[in-house]
Amino acid sequence: MREPTFLVLSALADGPKHGYALIAETKDLSGGRVKLQPGTLYGVLDRLREDGLVEISGEDVVDGRARRYYRITENGAATLGREAERLAANARQAMSKLKLRAAQAGA
What we know:
There is one protein chain. This protein is an alpha+beta fold. The relative contact order is 0.15. The protein has helices spanning 3-12, 19-29, 38-50, 74-106, and strands spanning 17-18, 54-62, 65-72. The longest helix is centred in the last third of the chain and has 33 residues, at 74-106. The protein has four helices and three strands, in the order H-E-H-H-E-E-H. It has a three-stranded antiparallel beta sheet with strand order 1-3-2. The chain is elongated.
């Protein structure tokens, strides 16, 4: 799973959000490293909708502009959980290897 996809799913894990809020939260979650452009975000959301991982939860009009809200599905939450576990396992392996390398360098 690509990082922008992971971040969008993570941003939706605590409740529905509209596009601008998703852009802001993915930037926040990544510590400012990932700055999604609207075209990229909506491409990610379209793919996630096609895969059944997110769905539209509502729409309203703010200042004359339509605002669409998205929410994560149960399948999306399960997929996010599996991906988070995979990334955590990979990070543990990397840290273990780095500790071994440091121990070998210090010996």
